[in-house]
Amino acid sequence: MPKRPNWRAVKIHRNYTMEEAARALGVAKGTLARWIKSGDLPALTDHRPFLILGKDLQEFAARRKKVKQSCNLAECYCFTCRAPREAAGKIADYWQASAKTGHLEALCGTCNRLMHKRFSLACLPEMRAVLDLTIRQAPRPIGKCR
After folding, report:
1. Would the pTM of this model clear 0.90, i.e. be above it?
2. Angle 29-37/18-25 helices, nearest 10 degrees?
3. What is the pLDDT of residue 22?
4. 90 close to 74: Cβ distance less than 8 angstroms
5. Which of 39, 64, 89 is a domain's end point?
6. Contacts of 33 (CB under 8 A, 6+ apart)
7. How far is the C-alpha of 104 from the C-alpha of 134, rounded, in Å?
8. CB within 8 A of 26, min separation 6: which ones?
9. What is the DSSP letter of 22?
10. Domain presence at residue 2
11. How many structural domains compose the chain?
């Protein structure tokens, strides 16, 4: 089953049984039952089979949809905090990954975990103005270690 439900498969002018809604979204029936039981997803539960209105399913999807987060120039995305964070002490390591891109490595200012970010070499002067960068030599690929 997919990690994210396919909300585009839901038609608003149609009523769905739990099995049909689960199949359309690509989630388990237990997941739908949990959403209905918690009151997050409205359903017609006074008769069997339970029916879910397509309009309600679309509105539920709109409430659950996550907002995409983007990082500012001096921020990296911290996977532990699950949010864009600034580097601790505004210090980071940099190395050139290819002819046009660079790689930034810094500690999260909140949880002190390692964060990574790739960016264009055209942004390097702006990045140096904001962060204290230590330029390192790029690590060699595993295949070329000899």
Report:
1. no
2. 110
3. 87
4. yes
5. 64
6. 18
7. 10
8. 1, 2, 5, 6, 9
9. H
10. no
11. 2
Q: Are 58 and 112 in the same domain?
A: no
Host domain of residue 122: 75-144
**Would 1 be classed as within a structural domain?**
no
140 in any annotated domain = yes
139 and 79 in one domain?
yes
User: Tens-of-pLDDT digits for all 146 residues of the chain?
Assistant: 456 677 778 898 999 999 999 888 888 999 999 999 999 899 999 999 999 999 998 888 877 777 777 888 889 999 999 899 999 999 999 988 888 998 999 999 999 999 999 989 898 899 999 999 998 887 777 776 55
Q: Tokens standing for 52?
A: 């879910």
**How far apart (Å, rounded) are the C-alpha atoms in residues 14 and 51?**
10
Which amino acid is residue 130, in one-letter code?
V
Show the beta-strand stretches assigned E in the chain. 15-17, 51-53, 75-78, 83-96, 101-108, 114-120, 132-135
